[in-house]
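Thread title: Can someone regenerate the structure for this chain?

I was given the following input by a collaborator and told the matching structure tokens would be attached. They weren't. Posting the sequence so someone can regenerate them.
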Amino acid sequence: MQKISVIIPTYNRRTEVVGAIASVLAQTIKVSEIIVVDDGSTDDTEDHVGRMESPVRYIKTLNQGVSAARNHGIHVATGDWIAFLDSDDKWYPEKLARQFACIEKTGAKVCFSGCEDESGDRLDDLAMMDPDLGLGESRIYPAADPRFFRHSRHPFIQSAVVERNTLLRAGLFDESLRVAEDTKLIYRLVMDHGHAAVNECLMLISRKRDTCGLSDDNEPRAAMLRFECYTRVQAELYWPMLRRDPQVAELLRANHGYFVSRWAELAAVTGNLELARSLGREGLRSGGDVKSWIRSLLVLISPQFFRRLMRRKWNV
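Best answer:
Regenerated them for you:
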């Protein structure tokens, strides 16, 4: 068995990260190291995790965000394979065993599994991407398989197992993105290296949080930043996909139109009217569904009116 490094970024989640570590230690196959990258926590994480024995490695860094924390973990990892876990999530005991059985069978360099939340609801579209893939079955897919990009809920990075050299060639996480950094890396891995999937929920993604993160913060400026990042990721994928599969590229263009229209909405809500008009114009060019097109049109025609219309929705 090759060496496996598990990377867990954390920030002020002492109680949760201990549970995440325990779920890795409970795996039916052993890992070589669990690298906990503490992104500048101000709680007592260091007192509890810093004293843990091998295979746990505790590293504290300045607060630079989750992408920087994960990238730091990748650079110091010694394993042949890298797996990711967030500090408030948990793996089920057979997670790595099921994935490495798939990797050994298929020769894949990237492998995902299904995920669920506390209520047992499935959070990914693996089954929809390939309806012929039965529950509990696994399969490998070629690079840029278009089915992966036709559904909005791609697998979570927390479910991924990736060969370290493949991960390094992919360019790691984009530290300029505050959200969607995982989406960008996942797209790049699947575009260039293909992927395998185990159609089984092998981990729990926590939806019960004491404090919201960037991905679920509904304060208007935080939400605007989120849609800006989503827009960038869709736009970057569009051009390479256009060369490989024009039909899927049009779906990405429609996604881009939706995210631009939402970015335009929030620019208007936060009072950045010049940016709102520019984004409204771009949204009309990008297309998308009817609601996205109408949203972009209203922002372009009268961002002030649109701002008044949306103030109650965004509590401003």
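Residues 220-244 form the longest helix (25 residues).
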